[in-house]
Amino acid sequence: MADDIVLVRPIMPAADKVRRAVARVFDSGVITNDGPRVRALERQLAGRLGIPDLAVCASGTTAIQLACGALRLTGEVIVPAAAFPAVWQAVLRAGGKPVAVDVEPKHLTLDPKAVEAAITPDTCAVLGVHTFGCPADIDALTAITRRIDVPLVFDGATCWGIDYHGRPLLSYGDVATLSLHAMKLTHSVEGGAVMGNGMLVANWVRRLRNFGTGVDGALAQGTNARMSELHAAIGEVVLAESDAEITRRIRVRRWYEEGLRQINWLRVLPLRAEAGPNVAAMPILLALDAPVDATTLGQELHARGIHARAYFTGHYRPHTLRLGGPTPVTHDIADRVVCLPFWGRLTEADIARVTTALKEIDARRKGPRHAPSVHLAGRPAASVSPGAAGLGVPRGRA
Amino acid sequence: MADDIVLVRPIMPAADKVRRAVARVFDSGVITNDGPRVRALERQLAGRLGIPDLAVCASGTTAIQLACGALRLTGEVIVPAAAFPAVWQAVLRAGGKPVAVDVEPKHLTLDPKAVEAAITPDTCAVLGVHTFGCPADIDALTAITRRIDVPLVFDGATCWGIDYHGRPLLSYGDVATLSLHAMKLTHSVEGGAVMGNGMLVANWVRRLRNFGTGVDGALAQGTNARMSELHAAIGEVVLAESDAEITRRIRVRRWYEEGLRQINWLRVLPLRAEAGPNVAAMPILLALDAPVDATTLGQELHARGIHARAYFTGHYRPHTLRLGGPTPVTHDIADRVVCLPFWGRLTEADIARVTTALKEIDARRKGPRHAPSVHLAGRPAASVSPGAAGLGVPRGRA
Question: What is the ipTM for the molecules in this complex?
């Protein structure tokens, strides 16, 4: 039995490098609270992005939270309806009011027309997401936010190593955020960063991550969202290995694109022109007449030892999220997006195993669409058949 | 020149123990996301507290936040006005409305009469703090919260190792929270824990720390507040050394109490009867006619290489916090509380150096009270003289 192919294997630096980094932290006596390793990691990340300043923090989620806190976003913040829960949760944690609008069908990023339609006098920011590494429609969103004079924030959680028009994607937007979680290309075990691009928020973030204290007292947006010296030290070691991981991922991506071309019921989600390489993830969109929905595909792959993740469905659906307009695309893609295993040490044989599994699933499912499988018990059968309005899997809140 | 005496020196396990713990985590390939080290640390902490379950998280602040989130505290939460900012900030982060009331003059914990007076139909919980390790008035607060049928939450951030009526202080209250920050007696570099005592909230906390996802979708209170496997592994090693630290701190405390007895313008804040030992901190309250205020004392000690921390003043003052009644005691103690250096490896000579420094400060300041020092420039002089209403230092919001 072959080993499982996991979704992501983090960059794991050589043991002696980890040992030296950890020993240096413990020997210094400073293991957290904004010490030298945090500041060094901040300088290295900002330097590579070519931006004036950034502040690291405990996670990609708290990066969004602190960005919103630094900008004092207590009004409505327009976010994409098809997004990881962290996005709207972080707006809430900062005291803002997330309002979700639809995404574009091709790139699954914020639909500028939907943003326009959702603007109210209480709109205080637009928070776009570079979904699975694909740039949001930066030009259109910039035009809108300039016109109504609110900040444009981009969550680029997955976007380390991706360029757009010749410079890092993370350098776009008034403020951008990054995740440094272990499953991201470069990581600090757990961590995140806030990039001050157009607006110099890094010092505000440094204050807010440490209870917002200062000579004038403690700010209401404060919390503890520091990155420890230990995590920062690992972050430095990993960062030094991230360029090699980018090279490996570009190769893995090529294998995937060749293999997946043979399967006509899915497509790899594309980047925009002038963006790339997509070293963030390997997201696929299932066709309306695909033999399986995303959840089932994930289960079928798992049964074959392949870990994939279905998005915008089930576990990730917001319990309560105010909508700023109709969200037909978000409904349309519900249970149709899957991220396949994607990391640099995958071999050509691994990718062949994934594509073979996808073909097997297709063959086994050929013919009339199956009855709802067990995990859908209790839902009306109609909700999983190709339904009215041309929506493949038009279920619930996404 | 002697080395500085720092405020707290964290337990720093022997290098080989750290090396083995870190190597085990990296060798396992699982460096975060609720792995075996997190679960092991949870079992060890719960076992030592004799409670059914607890969940660890990213920090003591997020412990309060997740506790409030798990209890769905979206109404008014009564908190002490004299508290570290994390307390009211965490209530806000969870979507609740902190309402601050006064503390008792002897123990500086929530005044039950002030709590009673602040109850409204929107009151959804009382959040007491075991300030500097001293139990809140548990009996009185329990009676109040039982009567109005709301949960009683205790922040015991500093309370590892302290018993009350023969069992761990952290086992009191419907829910209690702990900090595992490096400056606490036992620590995981950064970290916290939520104890489900009367209410079994640990599984809710496990869900909320991981975006609140579940079969029914993602909860609005979710976030990323996980503890990494790396931090948890350090936490296990440190925990194994914490009993020895408790023994050392008890000895240090005895030296302090002997030395400080000779200084009549301060008193060590006492614990309640049946509580102890106070291995959390060495907090002193300055007398109304003390030669210095807390901020100045901190500066004077720092000039002598001794790091102490003034509380309830300056940097820690809430910018915006709704009061649920008058707070004369909180005003009275503003700029009168200082935590002296307190950790197990302090020597008798270190403590003698601190007490000698305090006596020097007294001698130098003897005579008519000095004019406001530089850091108070711009404030009316009257605000630092022993003022009307018997308030020593009646300044601003605390």
Answer: 0.91
